[in-house]
Design goal:
The protein is α/β, with parallel strands linked by helices and 429 residues long. The protein has two domains: 193 residues, 3-Layer(aba) Sandwich (Rossmann fold), CATH 3.40.50.720; 164 residues, Rossmann fold. Helices cover 37% and strands 14% of the residues. The protein has 13 helices and 13 strands. The strands form two sheets. Strands 3-2-1-4-5-6-7-8 form an eight-stranded mixed β-sheet, with helices on both faces. Strands 10-9-11-12-13 form a five-stranded parallel β-sheet. Strand 11, helix 12 and strand 12 form a beta-alpha-beta unit. Helix 7 packs parallel to helix 10. The chain is globular, with a radius of gyration of 23 Å.
Length: 429
């Protein structure tokens, strides 16, 4: 067990930070959560969760047991022994790495860090970030990394909504600035999860980039084949089922309306950007990005074709988007292709609505400002919508009801046929 008196600090109380806190608290640690969002902090201190798979009752138990509190006051950083940084690392409008959250966090840390602390970055980034960006900023404190404080990197591997793999069961890759830094970080994480030590910060940083680039490239491949097979009159879903019967040498990836989530659409571009420093062009990554980024436009083309086939126009049409999370059965909308599809629909003068049992409202984000709430399909008259576009295949959606409410149904996830439903209204994308 972890020392019962050990205090863990987590900066960034989102989909990475909160599950990480959960595991440390379960092992007896006290945890102090830091975030610049005062609304999140207030909710947590009142025992309220804003993440579906972290129940409010659990957070209230932490508070009642005096194991957890949240704060916006970063002057409290000296109270903790280890500081885990779980802040966003998005891309800017030009697909360049945007490290402002990491940089600003490090600037704050430099004002408050104390001798003997362990600092670990969990946010996905390009190889060299921890050593070349974080270390110089932190050392403006007057303390030397590797001597006065330990510095390490351990990429998050969260998969929200996957009951088979949780924070406690997914092995943790860890790299340190020095051997001592590595040992400190390994000792910390080993209390909650299996640890995979590696030889350097850069290897640990690269491992996460490789994981998500692998997925992005293979998803792009199957998305491209989907578009080709559509022109050839071949059912891509049947092709995948057939290929999946091979017991070796093939792993199934599935097409969709675009990539979503904080990692897969973003992480490969961090490596693409870094590669240019070495006069190297990551053509596979760039091509995969081009194909995957184009998928919402492909969906729009299929939708317009389906409407035209039914003598309907997209301009002025009522369009229902079904599912706005980036993957099934979670409430996470980060980089969801549904949001881009909704933007494209508005550009075509369509009237949009959405249905999603996990997301009652769409809050403002850096990219989108939709003022919408999820509609109750039971209160909508039959065939009110010219089209319904299934973007996310949540298990708890009544797809029979969806088909009743729309004249055309465009299914980007093959969920209708998986449910054994058939209708002349059905189109696939």
């Amino acid at each position: 067990m972890v020392n019962m008196n050990k205090n863990i600090g987590v900066i960034g109380l989102g989909y990475v930070g909160l599950p990480l806190l959960r595991e440390f608290i379960a092992k007896g640690c006290r945890a102090l959560g830091f975030d610049i969002d005062s609304k999140k902090v207030d909710l947590l201190n009142r025992g309220k969760s804003y993440i579906h798979h972290i129940p409010s009752g659990l957070i209230q138990n932490w508070i009642d047991d005096q194991r957890f509190s949240a704060t916006t006051d970063f002057s409290r950083l000296p109270e903790v022994e280890a500081i885990l940084i779980c802040v966003p690392t998005p891309l800017d409008a030009h697909f360049q790495p945007d490290l402002k959250f990491v940089v600003n966090t490090c600037k704050t840390l430099a004002r408050h860090i104390v001798k003997g602390q362990l600092v670990i970055l969990e946010s996905t980034t390009y190889p060299g970030t921890t050593r070349d960006v974080m270390k110089p900023i932190l050392e403006k404190s007057g303390l030397a990394a590797g001597e006065d404080f330990a510095l390490a990197y351990s990429p998050e591997r969260e998969d929200p909504g996957n009951p088979s793999f949780t924070t406690a069961t997914i092995p943790k890759v860890v790299g340190g600035l020095t051997q001592h830094c590595l040992e400190r970080a390994v000792q910390l994480y080993r209390e909650i999860v299996q640890v995979v030590p590696v030889s350097s910060l850069e290897v640990a940083e690269s491992s996460k980039i490789l994981e998500n680039t692998y997925r992005a490239v293979n998803i792009a491949l199957v998305n491209e084949l989907k578009m080709l097979f559509d022109r050839m009159g071949i059912d891509v879903w049947e092709v995948i089922r057939a290929a999946s019967t091979k017991p070796f040498g093939y792993q199934a990836f599935y097409p969709g309306p675009g990539l979503g989530g904080h990692c897969i659409p973003i992480d490969p571009f961090y490596l693409t950007w870094k590669a240019k420093e070495y006069d190297f062009h990551t053509r596979f990554i760039e091509l995969a990005g081009e194909i995957n980024t184009n998928q919402p436009y492909y969906v729009m083309g299929r939708l317009i074709r389906a409407l035209n086939h039914n003598c309907l126009s997209i301009a002025g049409a009522n369009i229902l988007v079904v599912g706005v999370s980036y993957k099934p059965n979670i409430d996470d909308m980060r980089e969801s292709p549904a949001l881009k599809i909704m933007e494209l629909l508005l550009k075509e003068k369509a009237k949009i609505a959405y249905h999603d049992p996990y997301n009652p409202v769409i809050p403002p984000s850096r990219k989108y400002r939709y003022n919408l709430a999820s509609v109750d399909l039971g209160k909508i008259k039959d065939e009110f919508y010219e089209a319904a576009v299934i973007v996310t295949d949540h298990d708890n959606v009544d797809y029979e009801l969806v088909m009743k409410k729309a004249k055309v149904v465009l299914d980007t996830r093959n969920i209708i046929r998986k449910r054994g439903l058939q209708s002349p209204k059905l189109w696939t994308a």
